[in-house]
Each structure stands twice: as C-alpha cells, then as structure tokens.
UniProtKB/TrEMBL annotation, chain A:
This is Cell division protein FtsL. The chain crosses the membrane at residues 7-25. It comes from the Bacteria. Keywords: Membrane, Transmembrane, Transmembrane helix. It comes from Candidatus Roizmanbacteria bacterium CG_4_10_14_0_8_um_filter_33_9.
Length: 91, 550
C-alpha cells in the first residue's frame, strides 16, 4: 500500500498523459472515418441517381419504340375486324 | 525525489500555461465558435412519379454546371479548343461567356456526369462544377400537362408548377435534414465537438391512374388528327367511367417539362381542366337522361319534327335544316335534332332544366388533383332568358370544362354515379402507403335510366352520322358535338369546337373518351374530325383492353 501511494502520482500522470494521446489519436482516426463515410455516401447517392436514371430510361416506352424503330420492327399490326365469320360458332 | 518534484512542477507549470491560455481564448478574448461549427442542409430527394403499371414517369437526376475562374485559366484559347467538343459548343460561344473582368463565370448548365469526367481528365486549370438535382422524364413530353414541371421560386428554391408537380408539391418535396458539425481546418469532423444530424425525409412517390401505353396511343392519334384536320389544338381525356380514374389526358400542343423554359407559357395551361367551351350536341344525352329520369318524357314518346322553332326573335333549326316528321326520342339523339331537344326542354320546364345542369355540377370544380382547374360559370336562374333555356338543351349558351363534361357523361353510362375524377391512386413514403379510392359525389340518374341511355347512345352510333367509322362487330356508344365559338357576343360561323364523346363496350363500359378539336379547318363538324380520332383511339383500346365483339 505504501509502495502504491508512493507511485500513485506517477501512475496517474502516466495514464493521463497516454490516455490523452490515445483519445486524440482515436478522435482523429474516427473523424477521418466519418469524413470517408460522408464522401462515400455522397458518391453512392450520386451513382444511385445515375443508375436509377439509366434504368428508367431503358424501361421507358420511348426507348422501346426507338429500339424497335432502329431494329425495323416498328410496323403496326392492325387487327382484322370480322364482319362475317367464315365458320359457324359452336353453340 | 528532487527530480520527481521538478517533473511535477514542470507539469504543473505546463498545465497552468494551458489553463491560462484556454481562459484567455474562451473568456478574455473568446474565439467565435461558429468558425468551427458548420451547418449544412441535407436536401431530400423529390418524390418520383409512376404510372399505374409502375413505369417511371418522373425520376431525379444530377446535372452539373461548368463554371470558370478567368484569373486562374492559364491558356484560354487552348482551354476553349479542348473543352468545346466535350460541351458540344462552338469555341466562339464559350469565348463570348468568358469575361476576364469577372472572378466567376458560368459556361454551361445541364452537363452529365460523363461530360464532367471527360473535362476532369483534361486537367485544365480554372474550371469547377456545381451540382444540381433536376427532374428526369423517361417518357419525354408524353404526360407534360398531367405532370407539370419543377421550376424555381423567387428565393431560388425548387417548386412544382402546374399538374401534379404543382398540386402535390408539398408531398413531393419532402423535408430537408440538417448537419451541425464542428470541423477542423481540413473540413474533417472534430470528434469531441458538436456532431448532430437530423436525417431528411424524402418526398412521397406518387402512383398515377395514368396508363403510359394508353397515353402513347392517344398522343399519336391526336397528333395525326390535328395535322389531318389542320386544327389549332386538341385534347383527349380517357377515363374509367365507373371510377373516373383518368387513364390518359393529352392536350396538344404540349411542352418538354425538362426544358419547360424553352416553350411559350401559353402551352403550360392544361386545356382539359382550364379551358371553357360550349359542349354543343354532346350535352343532349345529359338533358335526355334527366328528362327520362324525371318522367317528363317516355322513351317511346313521339315528337313531330315539322320545321324550325321560334323563341322570341330567335329561330332554331336542325344542323342541316332537314326535318323528318314524326320521330321518337332515340331518333332525336341519332339525328342530333336541336328542335327535338327544345321540345324535351319544354316538357321538362325551365326549373327542372336549370336543376339538371346543377345536378351534374357544372359551374363547380370537379376537384381533380391537378393544379389549375377552373370552375366555369352558370349564371343564376333569375338571369336566364327563354332563349337560354332553349339553347341549353343542345349545349349552347353555357360553358363547361372538358373534365366536367366527361365526368357528367360518365355518370349517365355507369349507373348514374357522379364520381370525382382523380389522377393519383397511391402516395408512398418510407413510413406508409396511402391509397386513394374512388369517391361518389352525387347520384345523377337511376340505374334503369342509365341502361336506357346506353342503348340510345349505342343506337346513335349505329344509325347516326358516324356509323361508317365504327369497327364492325363491336358495341360502341357515343355522341358528336359541334359548337361555334362566341367572340364579342356573336358566334363566328367559321370557327368551331368539334367534339366526340364515346365509350366501349355498351354492356360493360371499360373506357370513356372525350375528343375535342379546336378550330379544325378541313371540316367544322365533330362527326368529320373529332369522331374519326375517337374511333382510331377506340380501335386500339379495344385490342389493348381485350374487349370482345358483341
């Protein structure tokens, strides 16, 4: 106990000193991480918006009609309305 | 021991210096803490808009503005030459915007991420980029009048104008979030300082009753029709007659909502809800329905159509001045007899006729969820002259909006239910999903009278002016209308508003469509302009909705 009391002050100084350094280093490191997350969040949001725009463009009817025109499959198929059916209905 | 004491006092002195310095910084000469505390608004994502099949109609996109700081640009002519092909601009245009006397000049707005990446690869000095969220419309201008657009208010904030962007602006906008954070010189957060974040609440997504496929069909047919008949403009509304869900609403000319500022303001107005017109003969079935409902006439009553009718100093004729003698009530609609309708009006009496117009809620807003609807005006009963009662029976001398007209007409074919038209069926947020259900406003006529009217309108197509246009084998009901345009108190005979309102199938109507063509030049009649457009649309919708022949 006497030995402990003798070195108490030195021990406290040691813990305060290195504890402070530890907290400062950890704080800087966590700050860097927060900053990185912020940058990444913005980047992913931007990428997400770009991808969403691309998906909506590709799934649009305008895109489908322009694709069909470029592939020359845009000829309309008009239905044939039957005035007189050539066969009898099965009644 | 002396060494330890020396160390102890050294530490004491050091801490004392730090404490005194802190006291000086914080108390004697306090530093403004706002230099460290940064506040940043987090803007929410504006809500997206989908059609009834969840096809996106409006999403968000990020666009960039290229700006330059002229003082920092090293070799300006090389810079212009390098960036011109990336921007798709002439070098001279860039040079014209480049003002050496200024510290900051905007070169081009609306750049894509790809363009920005290419510009960054050039590693030129004195260039920078501002980011901006804008709206993206995958279907282009297909639903311009329904959607409206997003512009800026006086404070520079994004605000929705017209259509659902205007009507649902608060729902779409969401709520902004906030970051309060202590930052060091490198703009990195100070971990032990203030760090607060209030997350933004993104805007609600809207699911519309609109069907993009029907929109495309209608737009194509309306555009061809306006070109063919050399008309000034045109509108088509397609709805589900039972619920008044709007399936399609197209008015031409329209505008590109992404670059709305490049078109005339006049085109922003949605004629389907903001323009008033005299409905003409499309109004006749509404009066006929009320007369049958109130037992003022019976369906088999006979009217002797012997010639024109005189009301005061005015003479009323049929559209072609031909008279068939004894005809029944269905025939009055088939041949669109004005004098026959005056007879029905007389049978009803002025008060009943006036009440009928009010019962269909003309002169009141339909409360459709689009910004810019007008109510129109029905003058008070005391101000009606005898000629007004006579002309009102065939849809002249009173004004309605197209949306009021289709709502009233739907009520006479859906069993008599006057419904509130609507465009948005669902509002979706992170927390909840709100469903909007059809709403009945009033009961216009009985189910039995509605059945009678459906058959009369079927007969009107089978035996009327438009029978040659109808696809064989299918049951379609409808009525043409031609109204002259009133200018300075007189009707201009050369200018008409041609319309057609029809539905299919007669037994179980899947859709009702109103076609209005303003000032067609090839023919003034609804049967020769609006009706062909309606039947072209109907032929495609019959296939789309898989309506069986009857």
């Amino acid at each position: 106990m006497k030995y402990f009391k003798k070195y108490l002050f030195s021990i406290l100084i040691f813990f305060f000193f290195f504890g402070n350094i530890y907290f400062i280093i950890t704080g800087v490191s966590v700050s860097k991480q927060i900053h990185e997350y912020e940058v990444n969040e913005e980047k992913y949001q931007e990428e997400n918006t770009i991808l969403e725009t691309e998906v909506s463009k590709i799934s649009s009817l305008q895109y489908a009609s322009s694709m069909s025109a470029s592939l020359t499959i845009d000829k309309e198929i008009n239905p044939i309305y039957l005035n007189n059916a050539p066969f009898a209905l099965n009644r | 021991m002396t060494k330890v004491r020396l160390l102890f006092f050294s530490f004491i002195c050091l801490f004392l210096i730090i404490i005194l310095r802190l006291f000086y910084i914080q108390v004697i000469n306090p530093v403004n803490t706002s230099d460290y505390l940064k506040t940043k608004t987090i803007y929410p994502q504006r809500g997206r808009v989908f059609d009834r099949n969840m096809l996106p109609l409006v999403t968000n996109q990020t666009k960039y503005r290229l700006f330059m700081e002229p003082q920092k640009v090293k070799n300006e002519y090389d810079t212009f030459k390098t960036i011109a092909p990336i921007l798709g601009m002439e070098e001279a245009s860039i040079e014209a915007r480049f003002d050496k006397t200024k510290n900051w000049v905007s070169i081009k707005l609306g750049l894509s991420k790809n363009q920005v990446t290419q510009l960054e690869l050039t590693k030129l000095t004195g260039m920078g980029y501002d980011e901006e969220q804008t709206r993206y419309y995958p279907e282009g201008s297909a639903s311009a009048h329904i959607l409206g657009f997003v512009g800026k208010n006086i404070e520079g904030d994004s605000v929705g104008y017209f259509g659902i962007e205007g009507y649902y602006d608060k729902d779409l906008s969401g709520l902004p979030g906030l970051i309060r954070s202590d930052r060091d010189l490198l703009n990195q957060p100070i971990f032990l300082g203030t760090q607060e974040k209030t997350a933004p609440e993104n805007g609600r997504d809207l699911v519309l009753t609109i069907d993009s496929s029907v929109q495309n069909i209608v737009k194509k047919q309306l555009k061809e029709g306006i070109d063919r008949y050399d008309a000034k403009k045109g509108c088509v509304i397609v709805a589900d007659p039972k619920t008044m869900e709007i399936l399609s609403l197209i008015c031409l000319p329209d505008f590109d909502p992404e670059v709305y500022y490049s078109t005339s303001e006049e085109t922003f107005k949605n004629s389907a809800i903001s323009d008033l017109y005299e409905p003409g003969s499309t109004f006749k079935p509404l009066i006929m329905a009320a007369a049958l409902q109130n037992k003022a006439i019976k369906i088999n009553d006979i009217y002797n159509e012997s010639g024109s009718v005189t009301i005061g100093e005015y003479t009323i004729q049929t559209w072609n001045n031909s008279y068939e003698g004894k005809i029944n009530m269905t025939r009055i609609l088939e041949k669109s007899s004005n004098v026959g309708m005056v007879y029905i009006g007389e049978k009803m009496g002025n008060k009943m006729l006036f009440d009928t117009i009010n019962k269909y809620r003309f002169g009141e807003k339909t409360d459709i969820d689009l910004q810019g609807e007008v109510s129109g005006y029905i003058k008070p009963y005391s101000k009606w002259y005898p000629i007004d009662f006579a002309t009102a029976t065939f849809g002249q001398g009173l004004v309605v909006t197209p949306i009021q007209m289709i709502r009233a007409f739907a009520s006479i074919i859906n069993g008599g239910h006057l419904m509130q038209p609507f465009i948005v069926k669902q509002l979706i947020s992170d927390k909840q999903k709100i469903e909007i259900h059809p709403k009945e406003i009033a009961r216009a006529i009985s189910t039995e009278t509605s059945e009678l009217l459906k058959n009369m309108l079927f007969s009107t197509i089978e035996n009327g002016e438009t029978k040659r246009l109808k696809p064989a084998g299918y049951s379609i009901g409808g009525k043409t209308g031609t109204a002259q345009i009133a200018l300075k108190g007189y009707y201009d005979a050369s200018k008409t508003i041609a319309s057609f309102i029809g539905f299919a199938s007669v037994r179980d109507p899947k859709f009702i469509a109103l076609v209005i063509i303003y000032e067609p030049k090839t023919s003034q009649w609804g049967s020769e302009t609006a009706a062909p457009i309606f039947f072209n649309i109907a032929k495609e919708l019959i296939v789309y909705y898989n309506i069986a022949p009857q």
